[in-house]
Design a protein that fits this description.
The complex is a heterodimer of chains A (49) and B (155).
Chain A lengths: L3 H45 L1
Chain B lengths: L1 H25 L9 H22 L4 H27 L19 H47 L1
Classes of the chains: A mainly alpha (49), B mainly alpha (155).
């Protein structure tokens, strides 16, 4: 059982680090996709103005 | 460069955070300043951190790009040094154990676990590179559209 606590702490920290990065990237991707969607839908209006 | 430095920082932090916890349990010291691999890897992660932070805080221009490219090249040179560090100088870290010889070699079960871990992390890495590439392509497209709108407004 030597090092069991350390292993759990290390894997918890690693999982949190990876999960934080992946969630951040997905949120960023979502935001960019919706911004591009908005920009595409505004395009024709801007042209007609 | 953005993808490389971000993922370098992510995986580097993973090692720099979990390594001392493991080292503390196994070696009795979290960080050995006399171990070449530890220090070059720590420096490599610091280079990745510098690149990520600089890219976000400094204005984009030729001077910034030149400076970051030079620092990036320094980081690139650190990679083979880190890889060969245990061959040149063994202190805490063991030498290469994967290659079978009289002094090295791995138990087949441990080798299987290692390979499984390697393949898993490779799949994760490829997925993250793809995700980061997609985000950058979208950012560039958005910037391009913004530029067109600005030019249209000026004209």
């Amino acid at each position: 059982m030597t090092g069991m606590v350390e292993a759990v702490v290390a894997y918890t920290l690693l999982s949190s680090l990876l999960a934080t990065y992946v969630v951040r990237q997905i949120v960023l991707l979502n935001g960019l996709t919706s911004k591009l969607g908005e920009s595409s839908s505004r395009g024709p209006e801007a042209d007609s103005d | 460069m953005v993808t490389g430095s971000e993922l370098g920082l992510l995986f580097g932090l993973g090692v720099v955070i979990s390594g001392p916890i493991w080292g503390s349990a196994e070696w009795g010291v979290p960080w050995d300043w006399g171990d070449l691999r530890l220090n070059t890897y720590g420096l490599l992660t610091a280079v990745a951190l510098f690149l990520v932070l600089s890219r976000r805080t400094q204005p984009d221009g030729d001077d910034t790009r030149d400076t970051l490219a030079a620092v990036g090249l320094f980081g690139f040179a650190l990679v083979p040094i880190t890889a060969l560090a245990t061959t040149w100088y063994q202190n805490r870290h063991p030498g290469i154990v994967l290659v079978e010889s009289e002094d090295t070699g791995l138990d087949p079960q441990i080798r299987m676990v290692l390979m499984l871990g390697f393949v898993s992390f490779l799949v994760l890495f490829v997925g993250l590179v793809t995700l980061s590439g997609t985000i950058q392509a979208l950012e560039e497209e958005l910037e391009g559209r913004q530029r067109m709108l600005d030019e249209g407004a000026i004209a």
